[in-house]
Amino acid sequence: MTSKELRKRFLNFFKQRGHKIIPSSSLIPLSSTVLFTSAGMQQLLPYLSGEKDVVKDFGTRHLASYQKCLRTGDIELIGDDTHNTFFEMLGNWSIGQDEKGEYFKEKAINYALNFFCDVLGLKRERLWVTVFSGAKNIPPDKESFEIWKKYGILPSHIRSFGMTDNFWGPVTKEGPCGPCTEIHYDRGEEYGCGYPDCGPNCPRCQRFVELWNLVFMEYNKKLKTKNSYNRTIALKQASESFQYEKLPQKNVDTGIGFERLAAVLEGKPSVYETDIFWPIIQEIEKKSPVNYLQQKRVFRILADHLRAIVFLVSEGVVPSNLDRGYVLRRILRRMIRYSTLLLLKGVWYADCLKRIGEYYEGIYPSLLQNEERVITVIENEREQFERTLQKGMKQFKKLIEFKLKNGKPKIIRGEEAFELYETYGFPLELTVQLAQEKNFSVERENFWKTFKEHQEISRRGAEKKFGGHGIEKIQSKEEKIKITKLHTATHLLQAALRKVLGSQVKQQGSDINEERLRFDFSFNRKLTGKELKEVENLVNEKIKENLAVKFDKLPLEEALRSGALAFFREKYPSVVKVYTIFNPETKEVFSKEICAGPHVRTTSQLGHFKILKEQSSERGVRRIRATLE
Fold first, then answer.
1. Percentage of the chain with pLDDT > 90?
2. How many CB atoms lie within 10 A of CB 613?
3. Is 466 exposed, middle or buried (CB count within 10 Å of its CB: 0-12, 13-18, 19+)?
4. Res. 512 pLDDT band, cuts 50 70 90
5. What residues contact residue 365 under an 8 Å CB cut-off, 6+ apart?
6. pTM score > 0.85 for this model?
7. Considering the domain 471-628 in this protein, what is its CATH number?
8. Beta-strand runs (E) in 324-422
9. SS3 state of residue 598
């Protein structure tokens, strides 16, 4: 069975059982508390918590999907048989209970066994399951244990574990969560460690692969403290600061590791030999004098990281030293570093990008459209990294020699590791890798402490950069009017840039005074004269159409779900203003953004828009200066 056939069978199985199929949400989540979507349920959080009515919005309580996800917490494990940074999750949900209240543990378990054994043909005797053993005043899940036995799972194949292994969530500090029961597949003795206690979650081997996690979401994890000051402190304290309360409803939230299940069904020893990854690895092998069996782990890391890079860049993420951009830079530089081990040169990955795009055509068709942009991002980062790498290696060597010569401990302090990162672009893991080669250790915790301190300083400095109109300090009424007009023109400019250049355009900063606007946006090349003229003409066209400008006050998460553009979510309050620029007759929306204002009421008040200059602001970011005449 191919992976594409697996995807179809999963969706058809749940569609036939009354589930509505919903599309994958973006890798960039609505919530500003996490960087990436890491589970299928994230787009459904308001419904799982009971804040929103799922029946009103979806017409049913029963949903299913495949979801793009990204996690880097296990990045050191990439290259083994089962781990990926980017991956897909197949999931089904029952959100709240219908009048009969029958779709909970038994139905979820029955569906899972039905799909695995009857539809996919997995042998029941090769399935092992784990259940929650109880902790934190939450009782053990004896009910699930009995249900598994009822449906033919041997008691010897059922193991109990605690909070770490069999209690799922929440995805943020607080929120919906609950005990879970997991289905593991026994790949056979040849993958095992030989110990008599070997089983699911074995720390010594990968014989048992977790395939499906069924979460029975009954609890809400909350901080015990109430006021904001204590709340900040409590977030830094141990788990005793949290308490688990019953949710107002019961939910079923399940997730299958798509790539892992594909490997089992294709009879492959790892996810990297499936039809998802193997074409990528074959293309890498064509460009390298090294073959796959000689450097299996390195080939796998390159294939994994390249796929993750394609999806991140397609979501508009650009390499930087902060947040999502830092994650992308880390993956990019890790890929570049490992590519040297296979003696790969030039744009070795170009044909790999084609294989990735071809595989996901019809699933995520935009990937094929972003091939050129991905190459530009990788090449820009490679050039920058190689230059700084040479300088950084010299600095690293000096640091090691100084410590050895002066009898210092074989430890690279967090501040020293951060300097290598900040000045020479070394990801922390590169410093760790180089240190281990010299029998040195690295103070990882202190590195992240220094990193967060630096990040906070950068964010404070960015407050003027994002939304810096400064109108509240201006006394002149005439100047206030000019700035108000330019502020509205900035919204038109961003919308026009996205229409002409694509949705990868995202605001990176702006500055407005009474004479001109300055707008920074993510884009990897200089704009052509034709493109600039097209943008300028489109803005003026919308000004002449006399579009209406209105604002609504909405909760942040609702504003994001409505499609409003957001560029610095960490700075937004819980309730925001959303400005919409639209045609009052046709109701067609041209621009919709979260913004604090100020704005004119109609675009005809703006006059004529003129682009003065377009230039580079920093790598991957362009800058436009413009005015109104």
1. 61
2. 11
3. middle
4. confident
5. none
6. no
7. 3.30.980.10
8. 411-412
9. coil
